[in-house]
Design brief:
Blueprint lengths: L1 H28 L4 H12 L17 E7 L6 H9 L8 E8 L5 H7 L3 E5 L7 H11 L7 E4 L4 E3 L3 H6 L8 E4 L1 E3 L6 H23 L11 E4 L12 H4 L5 E3 L9 E3 L7
Parallel strand pairs: 1-2, 1-4, 2-3, 6-9, 7-10
Antiparallel strand pairs: 4-8, 5-10, 6-8
């Protein structure tokens, strides 16, 4: 009995210790940089950017949603369904999945979910940047105002497209949208992913945007206008399209629900 009690106390101590280590790690990963401190100062003493936001009138902008996917049959259905079910006219949006060197049912499930799918096979030039560059050579972007990149492990809020449209004119825009974590409470790893996402998108990026500073594009949930890099095709060099020259936008009508991704799970 005494051994069980000691084991229980030790287990509680170990869990408390691991929680403290996790909290410390989270703090260190999000330790504010000089740029973020400058953003905070700019927010406190700067101007309000909302005054510069243009009003949107008239016809809704046309949006091209690209979903790069490699062997994502477990998640692609949820992603595509969330995109095709957005509160946005079908005539004003196009959803295209890029099945990049996929050997599973990604392409078939993407089409069943209501999206289009391009299948790409290139064992040499593999990966997301190459897949996007290839897709933009295959798809005519004439008539679209902006391209929105959505990862296959992501689901969007029903009001996401209308939130993007509210940022019009979009033809020369570069915006990073808000991203959360859909399975934040599954285990310690997903909790850490959730905390980091909140720190980045709900604190750091909002401060930088309020201070009229650029926000880095993260590769998921980024909106690129027709006259931006999309106009000449996206480069296969990731650094060239993860440009820091972007603003931040919480585009959903409901806070923290612009987009949500599924964090990696290693068991409960």
């Amino acid at each position: 009995m005494q051994r069980r009690s000691r084991a229980h106390v030790f287990l509680k101590f170990l869990m408390a210790f691991l929680s403290a280590v996790l909290a410390l790690l989270t703090f260190l990963l999000w330790l504010p940089s000089l740029v973020d401190l400058a953003a905070l100062v700019g927010t406190l003493f700067g101007r309000d950017r909302d005054a510069d936001t243009p009003a949107t009138d008239g016809e809704l902008p046309r949006l091209l949603f690209l979903v790069p996917a490699h062997n994502e049959e477990l998640l692609i259905t949820n992603c595509v369904q969330s995109l095709v079910r957005m509160d946005y006219p079908a005539a004003s949006r196009r959803v295209v999945v890029i099945a990049d060197n996929s050997s599973d049912g990604t392409a078939r499930l993407a089409r069943l979910a209501g999206g289009e799918c391009l299948e790409r096979w290139d064992p040499v030039r593999r990966g997301k940047p190459h897949a996007l560059a290839w897709a933009l050579r295959e798809i005519s972007i004439e008539g679209f105002d902006a391209c929105v990149i959505v990862d296959a492990d992501t689901a969007v809020d029903p009001g996401f497209a209308r939130g993007v449209a509210a940022l019009a004119p979009l033809d020369a825009i570069a915006v990073q949208t808000n991203i959360g974590t859909m399975n934040e409470w599954d285990n310690w790893l997903t909790r850490l992913a959730g905390v980091l996402a909140r720190c980045r998108y709900e604190v750091t990026y909002r401060l930088r945007d309020a201070a009229a500073m650029n926000c880095p594009l993260t590769g998921n949930g980024m909106v690129i206008g027709r006259r931006g890099r999309i106009s000449s095709g996206m480069s296969s060099d990731m650094a060239s399209w993860r440009s820091p020259g972007a603003t931040f936008a919480q585009v959903s009508p409901r806070a923290r629900e612009g987009m949500r991704f599924a964090a990696t799970s290693i068991g409960r």
